[in-house]
Amino acid sequence: MSCVVSEAGDVLITVNSQVATLTVADYGFALAVSQDVTQIVSVAQQGPMGPAGGATTTIINIVEASTTWTLAHYLNRYPTVTVVDTAGDMIWASQVYQDRNTIIINFTAPTSGVAYLN
What's the pTM? Predict the structure, then answer.
């Protein structure tokens, strides 16, 4: 038997005439069952909620157009970067992580706009 679940809700599983209902919570992941099931397993209650995450967005404005942006962010990690030009369009550019606190973004033409670091 193989079952892949990608949305929250109840899933009915039947194996050798035995029926089980599996409730899947929506936590942004998929549950996959990909092996033979020979017995019904009971699932315990969900545990307590963990501490809130520390995710933040750092916004860096680049006013003077340049072909190279050097972003010193001091986040001590390698954040994802979204670049938006002054017209409000998301643009793709070469991104190099110089170290855990500096990103260099290279453009083919002088560009100004905003870098969003997550």
Answer: 0.55
Cβ-proximal residues to 78 (8 Å cutoff; 6+ apart), any chain? 97, 100
Q: Where are the domains of the chain?
A: 3-33, 58-117
Q: What gap in Å lies between CA 35 and CA 85, rounded to an integer?
A: 49
- Of the CA atoms within 13 Å of residue 54, those in its CB half-sphere come to 3
Query: Buried b vs exposed e over 81-112: b needs ≥16 C-beta within 10 Å?
Result: bebebeeeeeeebeeeeeeeeebebebeeebe
Read off the pLDDT of residues 22-45 as tens digits, 9 standing for 90 and up: 555 554 444 454 445 455 566 778
Q: What span, in angstroms and rounded, lies between the C-alpha atoms of 15 and 38?
A: 7
